[in-house]
Amino acid sequence: MTAAQATGAALTARDVLPIEETTGTFVGRVWDPDRSVPVPVALRGTQVWDVTELAGTSASLLERADLAGELAQVFATPATWSVDDLHLPQQLPAGDDPARPAALTLLAPIDLQVIKACGVTFAGSMIERLIEERAGGDPGSAQRIREEMTQAVGVDLAAIVPGSPEAAAVKEQLLSLGWWSQYLEVGLGPDPEVFTKGPLLSAVGTGDTIGIPAFSSWNNPEPELTLVVTADGRIAGVTLGNDVNLRDVEGRSALLLGMAKDNNRSTALGPVIRVFDESFTLDDARSVEIELRVEGASETDGGDGFVLDGLNTVGALSRTFERLVEATLGDHHQYPDGCVILTGTLFAPTQDRDVPGDGFTHRHGDVVTIANPRLGRLVSTVGPTEQLTPWTYGVRQLVADLSAAGLQA
User: How crowded is residue 214: how many other Cβ atoms within 10 Å of its Cβ?
Assistant: First the structure.
């Protein structure tokens, strides 16, 4: 089932792009069927410009020191396309090759950047990770453990700075109560949790399908602000992200993080990257609020009609953007093509969907919408990973297509 079928309306690029932000600087990627290659584009309002004269890939484009200034000049020229020329993956006809669609198609906005993610960057997410661990992946035990944990903490963890003496004292208190966990270290200690979420080119864009593997029965979306970082550590812009999480798998053991996080279609990014300029700065990004809505298929379509709403308040992050970047790249690790960093989420769904006390989990056919009016809408339909279109378009194919089109990475 596509997002359009689940919502009863045909989702279009106009529905997901921030077209009301007519002074902003946005970049993305589209599949250009005329050249049979994915190309970077710039967007403003309802207009779209091919910017391959500046760079052949998103990674190279974002490295440009004065990208906003250069794109301001591009915006003064006639546009290449309109947003109404763009198709979303769910609009493509059956039988069309999703790796080489016949229509101009909006893709995830990154290509050669490494996909990194952070965990336990909010006090609430630390509590939920502790609960997952103590529940051993059993959602039925979560509510009881959540109540015990709330009583045990007795302080406002959101007000505590990780790595501070106060954080160390709370950690010792929890340890004395028998609440030992590796999550205490990354939640309250000096170093954040940063892991590789997925390989190059593995992210799906808005209007596409995210996958839940058959081996997981307790899972949820994670709406996150995503930093777009250059090779030298400069935060060039932000986009929306969904760090799909398999709670039962990670709850069994933190050593199963790769199994819980890195699966086909387990990362969604987009719809576009908002590049910092006078209309939207890094400080503006610090105060972003990201809305989440999960809509189950209607009962007439065999679903439960379930609706879940959530909010991720980025300003409640316990660590700064700069600290997350510093922990990701520097003298200890370089990313020559840049990276993106999903910064974590405050949202942890506890609303029961089926059995009382079991909380929330995805169902196939769910439509997940992650949105902010200044960044757009990242819309995904949930499906069974093993039955979805395999991921076949890799770096070798991208390089070959760029070469054939006369473009450089």
Answer: 10
293: three-class secondary structure by DSSP: strand
**Nearest residue to 2 (alpha-carbon basis) of 373, 407, 392, 382:** 382
For the cut 70, the answer to whether the pLDDT of residue 177 exceeds it is yes
Helix axes 123-135, 142-153, angle to 10 degrees: 130
Q: Which residues pair with 260 in a beta bridge?
A: none
Question: 377, 52, 109, 370: which is closest to 228 by C-alpha?
Answer: 109
Q: Which residues contact 275 (CB under 8 A, 6 or more apart)?
A: 25, 26, 27, 62, 67, 68, 71, 236, 237
Residue by residue, DSSP assigns 47-90 as EEEE-TTT-SSHHHHHT-TTHHHHHHHHTTS--SEEGGG-B-GG
DSSP state string for 213-270: -TT-SSEE--EEEEEEE-TTS-EEEEEEEEE-EEHHHHHH-GGGHHHHH-STT-EEEE
Q: How confident is the model at residue 4 (pLDDT cuts 50, 70, 90)?
A: very low
Pairing of strands 367-372, 289-295: antiparallel
Instruction: Work out the average pLDDT over 292-313.
Output: 92
pLDDT-derived band at 124, boundaries 50, 70, 90: low
CA distance between the termini of the chain: 35
Pair 345, 370: CB distance under 8 Å: no
Give pLDDT, residue 9: 58
Contact 203, 115 (CB under 8 A): yes
What's the pTM? 0.89
* Per-residue confidence (pLDDT) for residue 357, from 0 to 100: 77
Q: What CA–CA distance (Å, rounded) separates 199 from 222?
A: 19
Query: Please, are residues 244 and 259 in contact by the beta-carbon 8 Å criterion?
Result: no
Question: 223, 263, 257, 265: which is closest to 383 by C-alpha?
Answer: 265
Cα within 13 Å of Cα(110), Cβ side: 36
In tens, the pLDDT along 86-106 reads: 999 988 887 788 899 999 999
* Predicted local distance difference test score (pLDDT) of residue 6: 39
Average pLDDT estimate for 354-371: 91
The separation between CA 10 and the C-alpha centre of its own chain, rounded to angstroms, equals 23
Task: Please name the residues in contact with 302: beta carbons below 8 A apart, sequence gap of 6 or more.
Answer: 365
C-alpha distances in Å from residue 138, one per residue of 135, 184, 203, 214, 219: 5, 20, 29, 16, 11
- Percent of the chain with pLDDT strictly greater than 90: 70
Length of the chain: 409
